[in-house]
Design brief:
This protein is α/β, with parallel strands linked by helices. The chain has helices at residues 39-43, 50-72, 91-108, 117-128, 167-177, 184-192, 217-228, 237-263, 279-286, 304-316, 336-340, and strands at residues 2-7, 12-19, 29-37, 81-87, 112-116, 135-140, 145-152, 155-161, 268-272, 291-293. It binds 5'-O-[(R)-(carboxyoxy)(hydroxy)phosphoryl]adenosine and zinc ion (ZN).
Length: 341
């Protein structure tokens, strides 16, 4: 079974081809995985501009599809299905990916699969690791921060979510305040190396509170206030602040996961989404005493392979979508089951 996957929900134009046998077993083979990152297009605006993103996706998508097919030595006719992120995300970009996938599916009479971007992250670990359902998932990205029980494609129970900002956004904001560039997460992780993680006492919102919800806006404000008072003549200040920030975030995430494991006991904790690329965070989560599994670092941030893999998981179950599927700017994961059937 071979599925081509397209991801265009934010500022990466990504296409991949993934292969897996029929059935329901984890682990597939990536035949091609190409990503064009729009970093330079958006840099001078200090953030992602939706209109520019949509146009950049449109300019690149055909070339990337051709590249992915050439790299996997396949033609469109050899595919068993075509998947694209159907939401949530910047709607102009989602439309580009969905229309491209639908056109190919229609022309070659192939099944079309509309993938919830969060489901792409949620199932991505099974592309490379032998993880069986159900598992507990910490989904941490630039737009989301959630704890979920994952029982299968379209079958999720949300245990907690952020009541304000996403954790990746908090990393990005911190990097911006410190002039570390973008994307912020990897820059903060790099800068934190060798820093004193106890030097700055930052607030840990929701820490030791009941339940599994998150909050990061107070931490964001505290970082801004700390940066404003940072001594200019202290070369270690940025390193120490990054280390302290990272430790604070990890304290909160570990605490929330610990509550989730009590609420919904499981021997496997999966961490996925862009922030899961953070090795310090992975190390801290390992301390929880359950089996921690994460996708390889390169498959944590947005990519086409996770969309192709989710497409395979759905295609195996016959969960295909009609060509009348409408791209969705918002699409909560928990309704994925209702929507798909
Ligand atoms: O999953 P993703 O690529 O896009 C969304 O769906 O949002 O996640 C992007 C987020 C950004 O906020 C980025 O700064 C963060 O993931 N990120 C990291 C690291 N690599 C990416 N955060 C912390 N440490 C990292 N190494
Ligand atoms: Zn993402």
């Amino acid at each position: 079974m071979r599925v081509l996957g397209i991801e265009t929900s934010c500022d990466e134009t990504a296409v991949a081809v993934v292969e897996a046998p029929p059935g329901d077993a984890p682990v597939g083979r990536i035949l091609a995985n190409v990503v064009y990152s729009q970093l330079t297009e958006h840099r001078r605006f200090g953030g992602v501009v939706p209109e520019i993103a949509a146009r950049a996706h449109l300019e690149r998508i055909d070339g990337l599809v051709a590249e992915a097919l050439a790299e996997s030595d396949l033609e469109l006719g050899d595919l068993d299905g075509i998947a694209a992120t159907g939401g949530p995300g910047l709607i102009g970009g989602v439309m580009v990916g969905v229309m491209t996938a639908k056109a190919m599916a229609f022309a070659r009479e192939k099944p079309f699969l509309a993938i919830n971007h969060l489901e792409g992250h949620a199932l991505s670990v099974r592309l490379t690791e032998p993880v069986m359902f159900p598992y507990l998932l910490l989904l941490v990205s630039g737009g989301h921060c959630q704890l979920l029980t994952v029982r299968g494609p379209g079958d999720f129970t949300r245990l907690g979510t952020t009541i304000d900002d996403a954790v990746g956004e908090c990393f990005d904001k911190t990097a911006k305040l410190l002039g570390l560039g973008s994307p912020g997460g990897p820059a903060v992780e790099q800068a934190a190396k060798g820093g004193d993680e106890k030097r700055f006492a930052l607030p840990r919102p929701m820490w030791r509170k009941p339940g599994c919800d998150f909050s990061f806006s107070g931490l964001k404000t505290a970082v801004r206030q700390t940066v404003e008072k940072l001594p200019g003549d202290d070369a270690r200040a940025v390193t120490d602040l990054c280390a302290s920030f990272q430790r604070t975030v990890a304290d909160v995430l570990v605490d929330r996961c610990s509550n989730a494991l009590t609420m919904s006991p499981n021997d496997t904790l999966v961490v996925a989404g862009g922030v899961a690329a953070n090795l310090y965070l992975r190390g801290r989560l390992e301390g929880l005493g359950v089996r921690l599994v994460a996708p390889p670092v390169t498959l944590c941030t947005d990519n086409g392979a996770m969309i192709a893999w989710a497409g395979i998981e759905r295609l195996r179950l016959g969960m295909t979508d009609g060509l009348d599927f409408a791209p969705r700017p918002r699409w909560p994961l928990e309704t994925a089951r209702v929507m798909a059937t």
